[in-house]
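seq as requested:
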Amino acid sequence: MTCSRAIFAERLPTVTIPWARRTQRLAVVQQKIGLIAGASGGANLCSLLACPVGVDALLSFIRQTQVPIPMTPRVLGVDDWAMRKGQRYGTILVDHERGCVVDVLADRKPQTLAQWLRGHPGVEIVTRDRAGAYAQGITEGAPCAIQVADRWHMLKNLTDAVTKALQDHQIAIDRHWAADPPSFSRPQPSPDIEIAQRPASIQVLQHDRLEVDLSVISLAGQRRQKQAEQAHDLRNKGWTLKAIAHQLNLATKTIRRYLARTLPLHPHPPTRHSKLDAFKNHLIQRWNAGCHNAAQFLREIRLQGFDGARTIVTAFIATLRHIAGLPARSRRAGGVAIQSENMKRRLSCRTMAWMSTQPPHELDEAQRSRLIQIANLHPALKTAFTLSASFAGILRGHTPEALDDWLIAATQSNLKPLQSLASGIRADLAAVRAAIVLPWSNGRTEGYVNRLKCLKRHMFGRAKPDLLRIRLMAI
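struct tokens:
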């Protein structure tokens, strides 16, 4: 340079850095907004706060965040999370005692978990679900650590096994519901009302005293019935599960479920709750009082707090009209009086399996009576309910000494689902015993998995493992 003029510029590191386009204070604010709200949401929020910034800039700020290095936990929680459900999974590690995320791994391979545990010696207890990959990784990376199986997952496995055992006797259960007709009181109908008679040619199934004509079974149910028949036929010819799935263009899991059930498949009534449940008794009382107008019913329950759609009410009134024996769209009084206790839905196999795991004092008299009725249908059903209640009692009562007797009873029960469950527990016996004795569970880890999923969905496709790790551990 030939010019002798020199310009002096004083550095202000607390205000900004060389070549920067924003002050340090603004950069920190935008970085915090990105960590809390994500890139797209953070960019919108910054615009509202009169400090606009681009999405890519916010992503850069997030990645520049220095995540504090957590201490090695004494009690570690391990669980998987889905980057893309059914295809790619990661692993989240949680410190149970401090209540914070320790790390987020990019896969759920046992080698990855073992490598992390080797690099963080000092873990004494590890809670996990019953996945074999995590059991292997913990054994390799921290052989001295106590593995604790999650009690919720064990109860879930138990409920699934009992559900399959009940489904093996689905026909007997359906016959029991069909043989238990509703005890309707039958007043004399009005003389000017002609009660529509059901054609004798239509076969009727009774689902918890709600009659369903076979003529209105959905097309989806007919398709499933046909697929199940084809799967059973190919299996009897010696085809493998994979070959059957390829032939029918279905998932192997679906084929396995079809083969586990007996033919014919029976339609199941819906088991989800409705917004109308709290108002059904009122509607039944008004129906028996002589009002058959759905619009009037809707106006009345709106005043009582109902915020659902009109179609829910009209569908329920159509059900009442059908049970009462009235012709369609009839608003005139008459027909059969309806009792509210006869409107309850039939219990599904999964519901009954769940009820069998509950303490008896938490079930009402009707639920206990129904379980007893189903158990008396077949000795296998009574055995399934007995084993289910016993195992749930072992978990809740913290009595590991009774586990060996339960495993022997389950193995000798001739119920394949419970035999399979007992075999799986034997393969993971130490972790199951620890779950019965120790107070630790994987519930806190599941909570952080839920938080991770929320963050992932807020990031609109930019949920890379490194960004999720930073956001989970920095806020």
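The CA atoms of residues 201 and 415 lie 38 Å apart.
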